[in-house]
Amino acid sequence: MSKVFYVTTPIYYVNAEPHIGHAYTTVMADFLARFHRLDGYDSYFLTGTDEHGEKIYQAAEKADTDPQSFCDRISQRFSEAWRVLDISNDDFIRTTEERHKAVVRRVLETVHASGDIYYDEYAGIYCVGCERFLTDKELVDGKCPDHLIEPENRREGNYFFRMEKYRQWLRDHIRDNPSFIRPEGYKNEVLGMLAESIGDLSISRPKDRVPWGIELPWDSDHVTYVWFDALINYISALGFSDDQRYTDYWPATQHMIGKDILKAHAVFWPTMLKAAGLPIYQHLNVGGFLMGHDGQKMSKSLGNVVDPFQLAEKFGPDAVRYYLLKDTVYGQDSSVGEHLLIDRYNADLANDLGNLLSRARALIGRHMDGVLPTPEQQAGDQEVIAEGTALIGRVRPLVGELRIFEALETVMQFVRMLNRYFNDEAPWKLAKDPEQHGRLGTVLYNCVEGLWSRRCRARRGRGVSILGLEILLSPTLRSGAGRCQARGCRRKRRFSFRKRKLKNPNSSKLQRRKNRARRKSLMCVRKKARYRLMTFSMCSCGLHKLPRPKKSKRPINYSN
Ligand code: MSP
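ok -> structure tokens follow
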């Protein structure tokens, strides 16, 4: 396979539990990994946890636990969160793992041997939240703008990496590769940083003050600075440098980060790679913040976080994933809230998609014995078929430019088009006329083909019409879950949206309908049961034979 896609999230600090801000970057990366897998790329997706440094050490002390057990516990919570949100990471790296430490030591040795590391005294202002020295210019009212705390004055003996030496090279690299950092605003921000001296980077901490870290290979009284340690995860997880994964995936890399860690990824990391004689990653993609109810960046230290476990439990992982991808503009800040999630779910998933699915399903069940009919297309069907076939061509470039919400909107426009087609053709009227049975079958076929996949049709040698929304939405909507009961069928059933709308707590009208909703939910269970039967019937006519992209990594061949 020639096309390679390696996507990473930041590795998350384990000083506290995961929150929705972490989930945002991870869901975004997961979407990209899944989309590229489907689109024929050999896709590899890495996430993990950042477990060394002062901040973690202090958190463990506060919890009265030894640092390793503390890290084990919180790291586990991140793994669980990604399982709940159906994240398809290929690896989960922890910086306390030996495979990572060994690579950090190797990189340090290489850079040290090249003469780019020296020892000096350092005095400056340090934010433990950011785990880095700040410049006066970065402060707002004397405080770190991200953590709203005054940084501490520090003076100590540290080892330094000659970062300034690579400033001009980095400026040129960014100018020569315009999409290296995106969106563009962040590229300009970095070029602004590089317009003046960036100084050298302190890369060690005295062990007597911060005992929780990787010892420097040449001086056991010092541990590695947490950022120098953490950034290396992106190659240590690939088994740098002898593993085939390193050869395959580095440097075809897409780093996904939040804007608060721009400097570390856009300045520290490429200069570190350059000094170590390694190729530079391909793209740095910078996301905005999810803002809490108080209008501030959602963060553990500010205590305004939304718990992804609670959200997924309440609304299901699909609703959370869809909302994060559809209601945010990548690169910009977005406010998040339950009521916004509910509105988005109701508008797109329950109304547009869920309605179409349930109406098509009901009619096929009732009038076609649950078996997909053979179509006889007419001229009037061509528009919807052409639109469905062209969809991937429209969606692909939008995903490539990380305009994910636009990509999903394009898909939803097609859903709305299918709904219009359904309403215009009025299959429930066709069903009343036995002579129109063939036409009814064709209309239902086209809707189902749009909802599921054209691949089944290709398999049955009848040519190709619409590319199934199931496939196009599958990187976003995961949990339709439940396996089809057909013998030998391993395909996951999707699109099991509750027809019932979600209750918006802000709406008193809906509050008053509480009991009715409860009754409706019972109906939903019954509907789901019917849907299962329906899937069974469809499977028996070959629809279930779609590949399972996650395991097999087999691409969907769009030209089929
Ligand atoms: N450990 C470092 C990253 C090292 S990567 C080599 C770190 N960890 S973090 O847990 O504090 O943050 C990880 C990521 O989560 C960052 O990209 C950060 O921007 C993102 N987010 C944390 N809170 C966020 C929001 N409220 N909104 C969006 N993203 C947020 O930094």
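The radius of gyration is 26 Å.
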